[in-house]
Design goal:
alpha/beta, Nucleotidyltransferase, domain 5, five-stranded mixed sheet, 5 helices, 5 strands, globular
Length: about 170
């Protein structure tokens, strides 16, 4: 099963593409989509949409797992990131890919086994589980991979996390 994990963001959106077969992971790709703050907001959203649409066409994932947003003290930033997250979702919907969302607590639980784990612990586990030489950078990329791993570990219960039903 090809799983596409996304850590949604406006300036940096991390992603990971994994092939999960028989409790084993094969890393197909990981990286980040970035936009510059000097770009016009609608063009930043378009770039995110276009990049993810292209990646979805290239890898043909059977599931997209995305992190839910957590509360941000800066309301203006939270609204912009929420709008960007909507674009991530739209790209998956327009490519007819089932969507699943996980809270940060669920992701930490699924990776480390403890919902209050530190970010560094999650990153180390991503590196170990995927047998990577180093922790993917920036942090958003490791987070995208963590979401994909969490979904793989949750497949038995995946319907509980599905946000789009076809």
């Amino acid at each position: 099963m090809i799983i596409f994990g996304i850590d949604p963001g406006l300036a940096i959106s991390g992603y990971g593409v994994l092939n999960y077969i028989g409790n084993k992971f094969d890393v197909l790709e990981y990286g980040a989509i970035t936009t510059e703050s000097c770009e016009e907001f609608p063009l930043r959203l378009k770039k995110i949409y276009d990049c993810y649409s292209e990646l979805f066409k290239m890898y043909k994932p059977e599931a997209v797992a995305i992190e839910e947003l957590f509360y941000n003290k800066n309301v203006k930033t939270a609204i912009a990131v929420a709008q960007a997250r909507g674009v991530h979702l739209l790209a998956a919907v327009n490519n007819s890919i089932p969507l699943y969302e996980y809270t940060p607590l669920q992701i930490k639980q699924g990776i480390v086994g403890y919902g209050r784990a530190e970010k560094r612990q999650v990153q180390e586990m991503v590196k170990i589980i995927l047998k990577l030489d180093s922790i993917p950078k920036p942090d958003d990329v490791a987070d995208g991979l963590a979401v994909a791993i969490c979904h793989a570990h949750s497949l038995k219960y995946a319907e509980n996390f599905k946000i789009l039903k076809y």
